[in-house]
Amino acid sequence: MENRVSIIENILGANDRIALDNRQKLDRAGVFAINIMASPGAGKTSIIEYTVKQLLSSKKLAVIDGDIATSLDADRAAAVGAIAVQINTGGECHLDAIMLREALSKLDLDKIDLLIVENVGNLVCPASFQLGTHKNVLIASVPEGDDKPYKYPGMYRGVDALVINKIDLLPYVSFNMDYFKRGVEILNPNVATFSVSCRTGEGMQGWVNWLLERIASN
Amino acid sequence: MHELSVTENLLEITLRHAQKASAKSVTNIYIVIGQLSSIVDDSVTFYWDLIAKDTIAQDAKLHFERIAIRLACLECSHEYQPDGDDLSCPKCHSSHIKILNGEEFFVEAIDIEN
Questions:
Q1: Alpha-carbon torsion A100, B37, B44, A139, what sign?
Q2: Neighbouring residues of A148: CB distance < 8 A, sequence distance ≥ 6
Q3: Chain B closest-CA separation from residue A32 CA (Å)
Q4: Please, which residues have CB within 8 angstroms of residue B54's CB and are 6 or more apart in sequence?
Q5: Which of A17, A132, A165, A174 is surrounded by the fewest CB atoms within 10 Å?
Q6: Which of B21, B36, B107 comes nearest A153 by C-beta?
Q7: Of A90, A92, A130, whose CA–CA distance to B1 is shortest?
Q8: Cα separation, A133 vs A169, whole angstroms
Q9: Which pTM value belongs to this model?
């Protein structure tokens, strides 16, 4: 005999529950954590390097790096003075809450003020998996093109801060900032936005100040 | 391409509810996916055949119900389906909008044999 069983259960509910555990663990230790997402080459690792250098004298920092293979990014974070943990996802295109839980177990959280999680470079999959960090941050970059908010609404909708990197290249690429920002505004009107060049340092102080305010009020 | 993780979660949810209902087998699984959730049905079906093998759900047929994007304008209250990439209100052109439908991603029901 065939029977219908009504379920109504979120398919990623298990991930969300572990993300909540991660958040509680971070909160108990007084760690403020951010999840940095972007497409490959947008400047995630460079912005993390810059941020670590700016904050290292006043804050205790750790970086968790997610990559399909290699520890190149964690090595760069460690080289500028952060405690660094590498997660190799073994082909998975995103970090999930279980991977972050495993990485957190390798850190002495009581000795950390700010934890930066560098997600796998990808504008699709990471948006679906909450990790338990306090804020989600997206790094866009000018050479990617001004249509990205329209093409990746899930990613642009779910973030608390948006860093637009490589603005020093604006004279050389066709990127209509008004068109880009209109796409963002529709999806995410309250997102904190920073236009920066990590290479020249332009605009980076605004981003660093935003982080310092969040750490202070955590 | 995170369909493998998604399919693993789908199998876990299915088997947990099937066992609770003392099922001998699962025949159908009904999944609801909003157009804003980036999931490819064929890919889920592909992984399903691999990971559901040798479980009571191995012969289950997957049914995907797609929910269209539906938006509400917060300025003029107009409800509409967006046309192409432009999500702004077609009536008053406001960009202050709310998503009513399109973000769904859940298992609605399963059919089981006892």
A1: negative
A2: A39, A123, A140, A156, A180, A183
A3: 27
A4: none
A5: A174
A6: B36
A7: A92
A8: 31
A9: 0.89
Question: Which pLDDT value is given to residue A71?
Answer: 85
Torsions phi, psi for A110 (to 5 deg): -65, -20
Give the pair of three-digit tokens for residue B20: 């609770």
Helix (H) or strand (E) holding A137: strand A135-141
Which residue in chain A is spatially nearest to B32 when comparing CA positions?
A: A8
Distance of CA B7 to the CA centre of its chain: 11
Task: Note the Cα B37 to chain centre separation in Å.
Answer: 8
Per-residue pLDDT at B1: 58
Q: Chain B: nearest CA to A142, how far in angstroms?
A: 20
Q: What is the DSSP letter of A149?
A: H
Contact between residue A133 and residue A108 where contact means Cβ atoms under 8 Å apart: no
Q: Which residues are registered as beta bridge partners of A137?
A: A36, A161
Instruction: List % helix, strand, coil for chain A (3-state, nearest 5).
Output: 45, 25, 35
- How many other CB atoms are there within 10 angstroms of residue B17's CB atom? 20
| Confidence at B84, pLDDT banded by 50, 70, 90 | confident
Q: Tens of pLDDT along A20-51?
A: 999 999 999 999 999 999 999 999 999 999 99
d(CA A138, nearest CA chain B) in Å: 18
E strands present in A11-88: 32-38, 61-67, 83-88
Q: What ipTM goes with this model? A: 0.84
The answer to whether A125 contacts B113, with C-beta atoms less than 8 Å apart, is: no
Q: Which residues of B touch A10 (CB under 8 A)?
A: 105-106
